[in-house]
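Propose amino acids for all 138 sites.
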């Protein structure tokens, strides 16, 4: 079975001033595995939400995660792994509770990293998600 690639786009359409030209997508479903592009404060129409507010950006990212997983035949309870990238250690107290609210009772593995920067200066958080659809579902 070929991998299913959902919401294809080119980076030049999102990051125009950076002169990038990469064909990517928001979701790849490979069998029962679902991989999401790092989610940030961009909504699914490429409008940025929550400038200066890591909690608002995280809320938008998690709303995106739910929609994207559902489009791939998955759901939040299938999430196995998260990587959370933040720019400031102090943002943990704003970002993690939002994620925790969305993933209450899921118990994924999670790694948090504090990094120097993301794709654009307005981004304060980015969340990578990997999910696996259980056998007999999806």
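Proposal:
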């Amino acid at each position: 079975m070929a991998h299913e690639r959902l919401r294809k786009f080119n980076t030049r359409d999102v990051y125009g001033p950076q002169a990038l030209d990469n064909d990517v997508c928001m979701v790849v479903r490979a069998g029962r595995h679902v991989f999401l592009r790092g989610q940030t404060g961009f909504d699914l129409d490429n409008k940025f939400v929550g400038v200066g507010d890591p909690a608002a950006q995280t809320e938008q990212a998690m709303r995106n995660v739910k929609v994207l997983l559902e489009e791939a035949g998955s759901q939040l309870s299938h999430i196995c792994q998260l990587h959370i990238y933040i720019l400031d250690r102090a943002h943990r107290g704003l970002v993690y509770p939002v994620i925790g609210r969305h993933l209450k009772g899921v118990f994924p593995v999670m790694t948090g990293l504090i990094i120097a920067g993301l794709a654009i200066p307005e981004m304060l958080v980015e969340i990578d998600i990997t999910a696996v659809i259980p056998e007999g579902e999806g």
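DSSP finds two helices and six strands in the chain. The mean pLDDT is 95.
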